[in-house]
Design brief:
Layout lengths: L11 E7 L5 E7 L3 H6 L2 E4 H6 L18 E6 L5 E2 L6 E9 L10 H14 L3 E13 L9 E4 L5 E4 L10 H6 L1 H14 L3 E6 L5 E6 L2 E2 H21 L3 E3 L15 E7 L2 E2 L14 H12 L1 H8 L3 H6 L9 E6 L4 E6 L6 H4 L1 E4 L8 H17 L17 H6 L3 E2 L4 H9 L2 H7 L1 H18 L4 H8 L4
Parallel strand pairs: 1-6, 16-17
Antiparallel strand pairs: 1-2, 3-4, 4-6, 5-6, 7-11, 7-12, 7-13, 7-14, 8-9, 10-11, 14-15, 14-18, 16-19, 17-18
This protein binds glutamine.
The site of glutamine (GLN) has 13 residues, from strand 7.
Length: about 450
């Protein structure tokens, strides 16, 4: 967040929350309402707060009434950022409150805050950094090639990816250089520290590595970064997608979560390791075990769209195998030991199955809670996997305790709905409302070909 924001520079404030479908919803207030935005907040219906699916259909759940009832979205102006000096538009994340002034049980930002507080009680501080992957398209052309879509007047248009590879090449960079440099400057202006960006593999794909921060700030930064990137794309006549599979058959978009934990200032992932653990210490192992133990039940929180499960396939670097390994990009959890002599600063765990269709507050809350739980109950991790799990036979995978994630959103939602752990951590109202919202998407899109789903949702995240 750009701390140097002066109230006089702000002309309007976009008060935004990410809903249970993973969509950023917004209310825009004029300058004179800034103070009330952060005290009384703005009125939002339960539907906009929690119950719209990705395609704006109302979800039904006994946990929340879609028609009767309001919530207040209260801007956290300590996390406010000015988006650019010319427009004077600022952005702030909202916490959602019930009308009686208590935190709403389905507020996802508050759910993350509660998990961070639990960690603090256990004398642990988590650091989180994201790899934000996206696909950038040129302005639509009514031609016979590119990914199909429909424009505002319903005409079938074609979207061409803005780069055509090769991966990590200067050539691909140059194709989107103006956008990329504009994005870098705008992210820095908004106060989102970027470590680096590069053209990723797959047409039109870019990856921005966001610097590690405390968990809540990191997720706020991610939400803000997506707003910033969308604005810069728009200013360059481009369209951007954070969907897990924007183009079927191309490389997918993940939103990997890099996680470390400090106790009394020391990175627990850099502690001395037992033999055979490739540098992963005792508490680090417990974190890994905790995350893997809850992954099958919680995977719907790490993505939760129909396309998320089209992404989670072997040989896609999406970490679809429930196991861990040092430096291994096909395991759900990659242990990153860091350079020699730099482990204290660099060692982290990368949780790869997460993607841009998630509500990132919930995804990170679920990951941190599982890691914390692993430490608390002294969970024991499985043996590390040092090969591509996709090259092992079914019997070899079984022998090593490697599981596959649920194959589709419907199955993943059943697992989440009956997960006592996630109900305890997030509360019944939040889990029930989340499952209803995502089940709505499953019912609308679960039976369609991935191409049709990509066409319907690629520009909604
Ligand atoms: N950065 C990478 O390792 C590639 C990740 C891959 N695009 C995914 O969907 O997760």
């Amino acid at each position: 967040m750009n701390r140097a924001v002066r109230f006089d520079d702000i002309r309007a404030l976009a008060v935004s929350h990410i809903d249970l479908a993973g969509v950023a919803r917004v209310r825009v207030l004029p300058h004179r309402r800034l103070l009330s935005a952060s005290t009384h907040g703005v009125t939002i219906s339960n539907s906009v707060g929690f119950l719209f699916s990705v395609d704006d259909h109302l979800s039904r759940t006994p946990a929340l009434d879609p028609v009767v009832g309001d919530v207040r979205g209260i801007a956290d102006i300590s996390s406010m950022a000015l988006l650019d000096a010319e427009s004077g538009l600022a952005w702030a994340p909202a916490d959602l409150y019930a009308l009686d002034g208590t935190v709403h049980p389905a507020c996802t930002r508050s759910a993350l805050r509660r998990v961070v507080d639990d960690a603090q009680d256990a004398r642990l501080t988590f650091s989180v950094g994201f790899e934000l992957e996206c696909t950038v398209f040129r302005a639509p052309v009514p031609a016979a090639w590119g990914a199909a879509g429909t424009d505002e007047v319903g005409e079938t248009m074609r979207y061409l990816p803005a780069t055509s590879g090769p991966a990590s090449s200067t050539r691909a960079l140059i194709e989107v250089e103006a956008f990329g440099l504009g994005a870098l400057a705008a992210l820095e202006f908004a106060g989102v520290p970027v470590e680096q960006f590069h053209p990723a593999s797959g047409d039109g794909r870019l990856e921005f590595a966001l610097a590690p921060r405390d968990a809540l700030t990191a997720v706020d930064d991610l939400a803000l970064a997506r707003v910033v990137l969308t604005r810069v794309a728009q200013a360059h006549g481009l369209r951007i997608s954070f969907a897990p599979v924007p183009i079927v058959g191309e490389a997918t978009n993940g939103c990997h979560v890099h996680l470390s934990a400090r106790r009394e200032g020391r990175n627990v992932l850099a502690e001395p390791a037992p033999r055979g653990r490739h540098g992963l210490g005792v508490d680090g192992g417990r974190m890994v075990a905790g995350i893997l133990d809850r992954l099958d039940d919680g995977i719907a929180l790490l993505g939760g769209s129909v396309l998320s499960f089209a992404r989670l396939r072997p040989a896609s670097w999406s970490g679809a195998a429930v196991c861990w390994g040092p430096g291994n990009r096909e395991t759900a959890v990659r242990f990153v030991p860091g350079q020699a002599g730099m482990a204290a600063e660099q060692a982290n765990l990368e949780i790869r199955p997460a993607d841009g269709a998630a509500n990132p507050y919930l995804a990170v809350a679920a990951i941190l809670a599982a890691a914390l739980d692993g430490i608390t109950r002294e969970a024991v991790p499985p043996k590390p996997v040092t090969v591509d799990p996709g090259t092992l036979t079914a019997a070899q995978r079984r022998a090593r305790g490697i599981r596959s994630l649920p194959a589709d959103l419907g199955t993943a939602l059943d697992r989440l709905a009956s997960s006592g752990f996630h109900r305890r951590v997030l509360g019944d109202v939040l889990v029930d409302a989340y499952v209803a919202t995502r089940r709505n998407e499953w019912e609308a899109f679960g039976g369609l070909a991935p191409e049709a789903v990509a066409e319907a949702v690629r520009f909604r995240y």
